[in-house]
Structure formats: structure tokens, C-alpha cells
Amino acid sequence: MSDKFKRLVFGSVLAVVAGVVYWSLSRPLAPTTSGGSIVDAEPEVPCPPLANAEWRAAQTIDGVEIEADPSCEPDNPAVVAAVVKGTNRAVKALMDTRLARDTVIKRRNLDGDGDPDEIEIKLEVTELNGFSPNIPDPSLLFPIAPGITPGLWVFTPKVRGMATTNFLSNRPQDLLRLPAPVIRVEQGDHVKITLENTHYFPHTIHLHGVDHPFMLPDGRGNDGVPMVSEMAVMPGGSRTYEIRPRQTGTFFYHCHVQPQSHILMGLAGMIVVEENRPNNWLQTLNIGAGRVRHRSVASRETYDREYDLQYQDMDRELHALIQKSNDIRRTAKAMNRDYKIAERTAEYYLLNGHAFPYTLRDSLVIVAPDEAVKLRVINTGSQSIFLHPHGHKPTVTHYDGVRLSQPIIRDVIEIGPAQRAELELHTVDDGLNSYGPGAWFMHDHHEPGVTTDGISPGGDISLVVYESYLREDGIPRTVGDLTPFFNPAYYRGEIPVWADMDPQLYGDGAAPAAGTPHSMNSDEAR
Questions:
Q1: Per-residue pLDDT tens digits for 381-398
Q2: Which residues constitute the domain of residue 114?
């Protein structure tokens, strides 16, 4: 047994002990419904108080300039600085994160243009909302929406310390989340991506769309397809994939072991190859996708902001399979032989790992008038999305990393499974590109995509929000009260949809009050 696997087992034992202590001290045990919805989850405020409000500000850490992000839940700027500088080079930044010392190694400057060209990235596999025989809630609790906790697998950056936020918590630390981090490298870089398999199933990484050799000079497979180019990476093992990409664009990386289930479980992410420019220190990992807070030189030359958007859909039945047993033989049988993907039905639709209303916290597209904004969009689900931003008609410049000979302007953009699109969002108020400032809805026009388990509003809804329409806490200013949507009871169908409009006409006598206990009046909502 490798030292890495021993550490994994020891860490898992600690997490279980922590969970038992936490639940015994903090609250009575309560059952969990099928599909992972927590029966006794409490209503929430739209934006929980941010312990580190200074994270929203523009700042410089270890010489790395980080753009402001007024979102409710911005990325930790120390993480941004550490992956730009390299975790082997960062000093102050690394100490304020739980990244491992070798998560992103940046070595020699081979072409003499002022930035490193030898890049090494280490990824692990994390299970979120998994089964535990000791606590009633899923292990490493990561709700995708209020009270909704499907079992998930995800590629995560190599971390140090506990998987949880602290010893008494069942919540994962911020680096362990859906979706897999966006990887950014430069055209011509010598890149090594190492998968350290910290999971109980075999996995690989396939670099979809990124040019790479089928075999490495030493005979090792490099395409990530088990039984064809290589054998899968077993638990406790590792494999390094090597690329030197010649073409720029937005691409895709994912597990290719039993891809009909592993991709859909969450083992999929975006990989971006940026144009080669002098002094082009890149944000090698964008945790959770969303706003890119340290952009490439090429992006800064052309755009005012840049966002990574990852869409996916989920079948509750598939994700519940890992929440029933800790016997991996039973889980393997259930997933590989019993589950019928041809009968798959999606209940959950996500943007950057969350469904509405959580998308309002970390997946808004925040803009200002007269800007050019870059949107990189990937669909890692099994159904096409039909992306429609209200109030705007983006320009499609690339599909699958290839520039279109003639860019097209659309207000509905179809993106198929595994497909990527690059969009330019121009906020000039000319009646074509933009209709002017506002808090504009942005959603999948495949109508189930705006629901969570059939209830709307939910799904992958987000907004294109002008800064003048943001509240101080980063939540959009709206006419109505958003609070009811942050109540798990809403997505259990226990709150009438229009109860706040006219409770006598549309209310349900058995339903709880929509805004309790964290209601806010209309002035606060706006």
C-alpha cells in the first residue's frame, strides 16, 4: 500500500470521527430522503455573511495582481495568487490556502519571454455527498441547491490538511467542490498533468480536443482510454499525462473509465490553451470556474472581463448509487451493470456546480456598460443546452477551440454534450449587442433546464448583472423577495410557488411561511 493511499485512508478515518463528533454535539440525528435531500435542512439567507469581505477587492499578493470580484462568494485571492505564481514559488499566498506545495509547479522559462514554460499540475479525485455508516447526512456535504445533495465525484487540486473545513465540520474545504477546476496553460508550454487516484474506483484523464501524443517516448499511453492506450489508474496509483499544445482554444478534460457514468458523476472540466505572449503568467487553476481574476495577456488586450461557465445535468438515480453502501463491490455492480443510461432522466441542471439560487452567489456574469466580456462555455452533461441571455445577443467566435470563419450573433446558442463555445458579450447599448443596464436573466431555453426536480425557478438559471444592479453583498437587486428560494422546503414542493403574491388565492394552508425564518422586506430584497 502506497504512502499516498495510507494518508487517504487515515484522512478518511479522521473525517468520519469528526463527523460523528460534530453531529453528536450540534444536533439530533435526522433521516435523509432518497436522492440526498436533507429533510431538516434550515432556510438560508441569500448571501451568508462573508468572513473575509476583503476577498472581493482588487489586490496584489506575492506580486500577482488580482481583479476585483463583487460576487457574494468570490474566490480566495490567495489561491489565485498561488496558482499564478506556482505553489513551489508562492510564499505568503500558499500559507493562506490548503493547496499542497506541489499542486502547481512552475519551472524554467524555456523561450526567454518572461514566464515559465514547464508546468506540472497534480489532481486528485474527491467524492462529495458520499455514503457514511456513521452519520445520517452524506459525507463531505456539498449541496448543489438548498437541501439537494446528490453523490458526486470530481477532479480536485492536490490539497494538504483535512478534507473538511475544520475538525468539527462535515463541509468540504473550499478547494474540494464541483466542478473540476478550469486548467489554463500557454500555447507551447511543456505541461504535465498528474492524476493521483485518491478514490476507490479506477480512473484516467482524457484531454479532449487538446493536441497530445498517443504514446510518450518511453512507451506510456497518453490518451486516457483504458484498455486502448493504457490501463486505468487504480486506487492509490498515479499517472502523468504530457502535452505541448500547439493550438489555442477552449477544450475538455474528463475521465474515460466507464465514461457513461464517470463523466456524468462530475469527473469533467474545462482546459484552456492561451496564446503565447511575453510575461504571460496564467491563473493555472480556476477553482469552481466563474470569474477569471488574473487574466492572460491576450485576454487583457481585448476584453474587460472573462468568465468560465460549465453546464451539466444530473440523473438523481445515478448519483444516489454511491449513497447506499460503503461496499465498493456493490457500488460497482450497481453503477456498471444495473444502471441503465438509456433510461436516464435528468432532474438537476447546474452551472458551475450549483443550481439556482446558489448560482446567484458565485456564477453571475457581472458587467458594466460599454465593455467587451469573454465567455468560455462548456457542456459536460448529456443533453444539449440552448443558452439565452436576456437583453443581449452575444457573438459566437469559436466552437470546439476552432475560430469561426464568420462569427455569428445569436440570442440562443446551442451547445451539445462535450461541446465548447467562446462568446463575446458586448455591453454597448445599441439595441443589438445590449439593451442597456439591468439584472438580465440568463438560462437554458430547454425548459427543464430552469427547474430543480421539476420545480421552477431552479436549474442553471443565472443573470447578466450590471454593477449598478448589485446589492452590497453581491446579490442582484430584484423587485421580488428571493428568500423563499433559499428554503429547502421550496424544492420539496411544500411552499406554493405564488404564495408571496397572494396567499389567499394561491396559498396552501399546510405550507410553511415562504420567507421564514430569514424573510426580508421588499426594500431589503432590492
A1: 999 999 999 999 999 999
A2: 3-39+70-294
